[in-house]
């Protein structure tokens, strides 16, 4: 996979396939672009599809520092600039959605962005008194971070099957685990802590760019109620619920996801 050196000195890996309206795929926390492997070939038949590994993840080299959602959003901006992408659509899965929202928070005046597809992610993962739809409270987060530091592979191996309505076979799980395990405990712990503390609820009314929201009915990582909250809070959002998916509808119902993404992107200006 080719590499791009960012203005910060960090280097990120990406795949680049097809031509047409650019679609930029952004993966989840401590994961990698491997989770989009069922989407790239199909979508690249009529789009230019860029699948990014965030700094320190997947095939991107290890780097000290910069493991925040805000910096990852600036990295995405640098990749868009470096590749000269015109009117791209950002597809954020899980934490990748937070990166897309932070991009809008920082670069809301960037009229190059045509739309955002949000997959299985609420505006905050932290359970709070006024937000019961997160995935972890302070105590849970501390336990997650400790487990990641103690044995990141064991932590991810336990977490991975919960992301699916129907877990892949063991060989596929092992292959996915080998790929995401390259992030290591330190990168994984840093970005898990930062992303869980983010809260974009107050920003939603200002995110006027078109949004497509995609969730699975068997969402075990987050809470499906967050999808309804988003649909009612974003000015320009369309919500689709997939019947036989968990946290990874782009993987479990890839044909349906690809068809929906293609038809929705075609409606953008």
Notes on the protein architecture:
The model has no long low-confidence stretch (mean pLDDT 96). This protein has an 8-stranded mixed beta sheet with strand order 1-2-4-3-5-6-7-8, sandwiched between helices. With 269 residues, it is α/β, with parallel strands linked by helices. Strand 7, helix 8 and strand 8 (237-242) form a beta-alpha-beta unit. It has 10 helices and 8 strands. It has one domain (3-265): Alpha/Beta hydrolase fold, catalytic domain (Rossmann fold, 3-Layer(aba) Sandwich), CATH 3.40.50. 38% of the residues lie in helices and 16% in strands. 44% of the residues are buried.
Topology:
Layout: E1 3-5, E2 11-17, E3 22-26, H1 40-43, E4 48-53, H2 69-83, E5 89-93, H3 95-106, E6 115-119, H4 138-150, H5 152-159, H6 170-180, H7 184-196, E7 211-216, H8 225-233, E8 237-242, H9 249-252, H10 254-265
Parallel strand pairs: 3-4, 3-5, 5-6, 6-7, 7-8
Antiparallel strand pairs: 1-2, 2-4
Our Rg estimate from Cα atoms comes to 17 Å
Percentage of β-strand residues: 15-25%
**CATH third-tier fold name:** Rossmann fold
Helix content: 25-40%
Please report the first level of CATH classification, the CATH class: Alpha Beta
Sheet with most strands: strand arrangement: 1-2-4-3-5-6-7-8
CATH superfamily: Alpha/Beta hydrolase fold, catalytic domain
The end-to-end distance, rounded to whole angstroms, is 31 Å
Number of strands: 8
Tally of structural domains: 1
- By DSSP (H or I, 4+ residues per run), the number of helices equals 10
- Spans of 5+ residues with little confidence (pLDDT < 50)? none
Mean pLDDT: 96
CATH architecture level-2 label: 3-Layer(aba) Sandwich
Could you describe the largest sheet, including whether it forms a barrel? Answer: 8 strands, mixed
Shape: globular
Structural classification: alpha/beta
Q: H/E series, N to C?
A: EEEHEHEHEHHHHEHEHH
